[in-house]
Structure formats: structure tokens, C-alpha cells
Amino acid sequence: MKKSTKFLFIIMIAIILAVLWFDRNNSSVIYHDPIEVEDENPLKIDVADVHQGELLLVNEEYGIKESAKTDIKNLYENQEITGDYGLLTTDIALSKEITAYFNEMIEGAKKDGVNNFLISSGYRSFEEQTKLYQEKGRDYALPGGYSEHQLGLALDVGSSEGTMAEAAEGKWIAENAWQYGFVLRYPQAKTDVTGIQYEPWHIRYVGKPHSVIMQDKNFVLEEYLAYLREKEQISATVDGKEYNIRYYAVSKAKKVKIPKGYNYTISGDNVGGVIITLYK
């Protein structure tokens, strides 16, 4: 092989590897104009919908009265639903559905050679959160009703190899959780937005396409919900799947119209609005 040909071959391989790396580490999302359809069906949304779903904002300002998930399970007592990771204590509980999504993510990490995960905290009841707040104080915990841990959608993840800020597990979570519907809820660069100190261990399930769009736009949940309120409707293709996301302010029961031929999910924002995610 001539030197020039060999050099071109090496360049081509380098370009291919760079493209593969870019696709792996960047969100696959294409934005397009809002969909326009003629045939629509009415859908009733109510004030109760504002406080249910996977996109609820829970912080010092916006609290909840009940979990977003009803399928809470003690993971130590139901190890048939857990994956290849440790449990720091025997009382850790989590939504069965969210556990399945977490298991899928852990399997993805294992393929990258990262496999020393453990769950250090999961779902907490109102009573447990209140007790934690009373014992640890405001610098460590939020009052009962104002913690994401009460949703059943959030968990704290650790590593048996060190702190999450330094361990391979923490770095992998920060770079890849969005691909599995999770987000790093309190990143270091967004403390002024979340009002919470950097927590490289705390992840929250929001589901796709939301986690992908948040990654693409470098949004935390506060910013993403504000973005949806401002836009009212966005359309995007995420991982080859077409989505239309609509935001509605809801102060009383109302009927909205959604296009025929689409499936949909509904989630409130816990502030005053409802997000309807349409997809085919």
C-alpha cells in the first residue's frame, strides 16, 4: 500500500470513529414545525392532572401530597425485580416500573465495563422524609412533601469504588443517563437554577423524549418546564420516533383537541400546567 493511500485510509477510519463517538455521546433529536392535522379528538384534562405524572417539579416551592407512582416495592424483599447492583440498606424501595428502567441502564453501563453500582436511597414516605429533615436539617434534606424521593421516580446511586464525583460509575451516569430516560437532577453547573447543591448521585426519571431534549438543550427540569410553557408546542423526532409535546395551563377542567392516530401520555408539572406528549 502506498504511503498516500495508507494515510487516507487512516484518516477515513479516524473520521468513522469520530462520527460513531459523536452519535454515542450526543442526543439524537431533530426539531421540526408543529404538526398540522384536520382530524382531532377531544380530551378532557383536569386540575388533578397537574399533580400527577413523570414531569412533576418538586422542590422547596412546589410540594406534593402523594407519590407519583403507586407500584412502590422494597427492593431487598423483591430481588427478582432488581439488577446487577448492590443495595446499601435493606429498606430501599422504588417504583417497580422505574426499577426496570434502571436495570436497563445498568446493563448498558456493564457493556462499557462500568459495573460497580449500588442504590443508596430510593423512595421515601412523607413520614420518613419528615424524620430525615428533623434529624439532618435543611442543609441535608428537604421537608416532608418537598423531596423528589417521595415521587418514586428518583433515587441516589453510589459506587463501591469511591464517590460518585470521582468514580467511573458517576462519570458514566452523568454522560449516559439521558439515553435511558433518566437525568442527573442536580448538576454542578445548575445550582443557581435548582437551588440544590451538586449531587452527582441523584438521578430522576422523566422518560423519553424529555430526557433527550433536556440533554440536547442542556436543561435541568426547571428550565425544561419553563421552555415548554413558553413554546406551548414543540415537535421533534427522537431516535427516529416522532413526538409532539404540548403544554396547557390548567386552572379548571377543560377540553383540548389532540390529533387522531397518535398515542399520548399526560403529565402535570406540579405548578399549574399539563404536558401532553403525542407520539406514533
DSSP E strands, number: 14
Which H/E pattern describes the elements?
Answer: HEEEEEHEHEHEHEHHEEEEE
| Share of residues in helices | 25-40%
Give the helix/strand class: alpha+beta
Strand content: 25-35%
Largest sheet: 5 strands, antiparallel
CA-based shape: globular
Trace the largest sheet across and list its strands: 1-10-11-14-13
Average predicted confidence as pLDDT: 90
* Number of helices in the DSSP assignment: 7
Stretches where pLDDT is under 50 for at least 5 consecutive residues are 7-25
End-to-end separation in angstroms reads 50 Å
Indicate the radius of gyration in whole angstroms.
21 Å
Question: How is this fold's topology laid out?
Answer:
Blueprint: H1 3-25, E1 29-32, E2 40-45, E3 72-74, E4 86-87, E5 93-95, H2 96-111, E6 117-121, H3 126-136, E7 154-159, H4 168-176, E8 182-186, H5 191-194, E9 199-205, H6 210-217, H7 221-231, E10 233-238, E11 241-249, E12 254-259, E13 263-268, E14 273-279
Parallel strand pairs: 4-6
Antiparallel strand pairs: 1-10, 2-12, 3-5, 6-7, 7-9, 8-9, 10-11, 11-14, 13-14
Structure description:
This protein is of the alpha+beta class. Helices cover 29% and strands 27% of the residues. The chain has helices spanning 3-25, 96-111, 126-136, 168-176, 191-194, 210-217, 221-231; strands spanning 29-32, 40-45, 72-74, 86-87, 93-95, 117-121, 154-159, 182-186, 199-205, 233-238, 241-249, 254-259, 263-268, 273-279. Strands 1-10-11-14-13 form a five-stranded antiparallel β-sheet. Strands 4-6-7-9-8 form a five-stranded mixed β-sheet. The protein has a two-stranded antiparallel sheet with strand order 2-12. The protein is globular. It starts with a helix and ends with a strand. 32% of the residues are buried. Mean pLDDT is 90; it is low at 7-25.
